[in-house]
Amino acid sequence: MTTDLALRADLAVRGVRVDAPVRRRSGAGPSDDGHVFLGGIGTALPISSSSPYEITGGRLLLDGADLGLDVEPVRRPAFYDLVTDDGVPFEQLARLHGSDVLATTVVQTCMRYADEATRCRFCAITASLDAGATTAVKTPAQLAAVAEAAVRLDGVRQMVLTTGTSTAPDRGARHLARCVRAVTEAVPGLPVQVQCEPPGDLAVLTELREAGATAIGIHVESMDDAVRARWTPGKATVPMADYWSAWHEAVRVFGRNRVSTYLLVGLGEHPDELVAGAAELVAAGVYPFVVPFRPLAGTLEASHPPPPATLVADVTARVAAVLAAAGMRGAEQGAGCAACGACSALPVAGG
Q1: Which one of 102, 172, 207, 335 is most buried, counting C-beta atoms within 10 A?
Q2: What radius of gyration, in Å, describes the C-alpha atoms of the chain?
Q3: How far apart are CA 163 and CA 309, in angstroms?
Q4: What sign does the dihedral 330-238-94-151 (CA atoms) show?
Q5: Residue 318: left (phi > 0), alpha (psi -120 to 50), or beta?
Q6: In the Cβ-directed half-sphere of 346, how many Cα atoms lie within 13 Å?
Q7: To 10 degrees, the CA torsion angle through 234, 237, 240, 246?
Q8: 95 and 270 in contact (C-beta within 8 Å)?
């Protein structure tokens, strides 16, 4: 049995009860999740002790009834057991996402986070740092060592490097470039996606590409200015015109369907407007990675309810149709959230 869109959307909203060896806790969002193979497809599912869904005995159950779907948790990777020469555990430097993606936040702080008036309301970027589960700044040499081990020991096929936003005009992109260069020198041919806010100097995008980045994510979360002001007040001070300039330049530098942005369902944006905004992005060669908002512990909106699964399925299906018509598939990006697809229902819908 394969996963249908309605079921995938319901799981994304209601989560699942499972003991997942590979899971993501806190961070910049969109949710805490466990990583499994759902019907053979790498999938990230929110962990929820109150969910009616449960994974047990390699099967997905709903209120105890077997749904006929095989589920296998992703195994704990071997590289987690290694440490750097100066004693830093590799697990604190980068984590396995999905089944074959190595991901890290190279700078685990953000200039917008300290002040609640500017913090993104779904973000908990410093939570893992406060818990001692990561380090504040990862060096290029550290990430090169982790990438080499993850590819060699665990068959990792791509890497994602994101960063908290810095006060520098490049918004942290130049440190990303240094990290990418070190990783691609250590593991030639490994696809790498970078993620950052629109830099003040768009020439930095070329620096990222020349350093070896395969793809880039410039995440806006919503195309609606009122929604942005409500949910991402600090980022909302960056005009949409700056995002469009960055997206257009990124498409020029990286290529069509090598640029993406998150769009979160459930922040209050009208679904028709969300789909229309996604269509604008697709027309520009930017992949809209549609993901449902889920409340995350430790954030300013931890009690905000997730969107209805029917809404998630409807928006996802319509955006997937736009992508299909344009001949854009996330898997073709080579690296990044869209290439992995584990956090979204888009792959199930054909996106």
Answers
A1: 102
A2: 19
A3: 30
A4: positive
A5: alpha
A6: 30
A7: -80
A8: no
Give the DSSP letter string of 37-54: EETTEEEEEEB-TT-SEE
Q: Give yes or no for a contact between 46 and 85, defined as CB atoms under 8 angstroms apart.
A: no
Q: CB 242: neighbour CB atoms within 10 A? A: 16
Please tell me the total count of domains within the chain.
1
DSSP code at position 229: H
Matching residue, tokens 């430790």: 298
291 neighbors 265 (Cβ within 8 angstroms): yes
CA 220, 222, 225, 226 torsion: positive or negative?
A: negative
Locate tokens 């009616």: which residue?
52
CA distance 160 to 234: 24
Neighbours of 167 (CB within 10 A): 7
pTM for the structure as a whole: 0.95
Peptide bond into 233 cis (omega under 30): no
194, amino acid identity: V
**What is the domain range of residue 270?**
5-349
> What tens digit of pLDDT does each residue of 16-45 get?
999 888 876 655 554 568 899 998 888 999
Burial class (CB in 10 A: 0-12, 13-18, 19+), 169: exposed
Specify the CATH number for the domain of residue 13. Answer: 3.20.20.70
Rounded CA separation 4/2 (Å): 6
Residue type, 92: Q
What's the pLDDT tens digit per position in 240-280?
999 999 999 999 999 999 999 999 999 999 999 999 999 99
Taking the C-alpha atoms of residue 136 and residue 50, their distance in angstroms, rounded to an integer, is 33
